[in-house]
């Protein structure tokens, strides 16, 4: 198994570090670099998953190119040769896992679309028969496909804080009715088109989150898009209603951590090689199924 790249070091530059990503700020552009770091239960693991950053970047590139007819996006290039100096001098760190993007005015709403009833949506439905505060018909089971995809926004929290689910009415109060309607319409169309395509590749997209910004008042799709980290990807051939399906993501990591003596606060335990290999295989399988190509 290849080595994971968990630290990005470009001399004489500064970056904002997220749990798994570095963001370098230029004048009117940004460079996003997806490391191989992995987080679970809000903690970054001491060792990463090889090629994870490449998978997330290349899947985002794939979807950005496929969705340009629905909404413009912030992607400029994933070719390090196109990056300004000094970044173009470090292909060994940046190739395949970095993206030069337009800087936008970020809209502080997470646009979540759910096509299946799982996770926090399933918990809410069990408790109150609603999802995002909206009533659903009775009779759904865990992991059931919803009659229609549902838009359930949340606040976009500052780093280190948790996003908070909000109602659509609350979203309208925060950013206005017109912008809310546009984001809802774009998000639902993106999800429906992507879910339909992914199904032809044997992948169910159970839910996903989109992020948007604005440039001169025009809505722009930003961040990563329709990846196994921003969505739930399920293998269609093993999907069944009534249980929580295995995902094309860090499910192996979460499952392993539930079996060890760890209180889910830092420092997190190192992950065994077997867990890293299984997770890497799932990420790569998601990329290969969707794009019909290999990294």
Features:
7 helices, D-amino Acid Aminotransferase, Chain A, domain 1, 29% helix, 5-stranded antiparallel β-sheet, 295 residues, 7-stranded antiparallel β-sheet, 2 domains, globular, alpha+beta, Phosphorylase Kinase, domain 1
Chart the SSEs and their pairings:
Layout: E1 15-17, E2 21-25, E3 29-34, E4 39-40, E5 43-44, H1 52-66, E6 75-77, H2 91-94, E7 98-102, E8 105-106, E9 109-116, H3 119-128, E10 130-131, E11 134-135, E12 145-151, E13 154-155, H4 168-175, H5 177-200, E14 203-215, E15 218-222, E16 231-235, H6 251-257, H7 273-291
Antiparallel strand pairs: 1-2, 2-3, 3-7, 4-5, 6-7, 8-14, 9-12, 9-13, 9-14, 10-11, 14-15, 14-16
Quick take:
29% of the residues lie in helices and 24% in strands. By secondary structure, the chain is α+β, with helices and mostly antiparallel strands.
Could you characterize the architecture of this molecule?
With 295 residues, this protein is an alpha+beta fold. The chain has two domains: 1-103, Phosphorylase Kinase, domain 1 (2-Layer Sandwich); 106-238, 2-Layer Sandwich (D-amino Acid Aminotransferase, Chain A, domain 1). 29% of the residues lie in helices and 24% in strands. The longest helix is centred in the middle third of the chain and has 24 residues, at 177-200. The two termini are 14 Å apart.
């Amino acid at each position: 198994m290849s080595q994971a790249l968990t630290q990005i070091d470009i001399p004489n530059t500064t970056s904002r570090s997220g749990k798994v990503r570095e963001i370098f700020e230029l004048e009117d552009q940004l460079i996003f670099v997806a490391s191989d770091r992995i987080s679970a239960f809000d903690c970054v693991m001491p060792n990463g998953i090889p090629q994870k950053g490449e998978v997330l970047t290349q899947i985002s590139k794939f979807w950005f190119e496929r969705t340009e007819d629905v909404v413009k996006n912030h992607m400029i290039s994933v070719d390090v040769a196109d990056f300004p100096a000094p970044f173009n001098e470090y292909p060994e760190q940046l190739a395949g896992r970095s993206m030069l993007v337009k800087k936008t005015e970020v809209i502080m709403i997470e646009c979540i679309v759910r096509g299946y009833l799982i996770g926090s949506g399933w918990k809410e439905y069990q408790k109150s028969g609603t999802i995002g505060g909206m009533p659903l018909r009775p009779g759904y089971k865990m992991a059931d496909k919803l009659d229609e995809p549902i838009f359930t926004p949340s606040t976009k929290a500052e780093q280190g804080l948790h996003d908070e689910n909000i109602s659509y009415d609350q979203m309208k109060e925060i950013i206005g009715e017109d912008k809310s309607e546009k984001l809802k319409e774009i998000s639902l169309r993106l999800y429906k088109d992507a879910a339909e395509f992914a199904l032809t590749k044997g992948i169910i997209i159970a839910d996903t989150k989109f992020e948007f910004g604005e440039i001169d008042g025009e809505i722009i799709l930003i961040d990563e898009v329709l990846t196994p980290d921003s969505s739930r990807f399920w293998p269609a051939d093993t999907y069944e209603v009534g249980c929580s399906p295995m995902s094309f993501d860090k499910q192996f990591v979460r499952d392993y951590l539930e079996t060890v003596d760890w209180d889910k606060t830092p420092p997190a335990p190192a992950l065994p090689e077997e867990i890293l290999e299984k997770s890497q295989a799932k990420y790569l399988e998601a990329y290969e199924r969707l794009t019909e190509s290999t990294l």
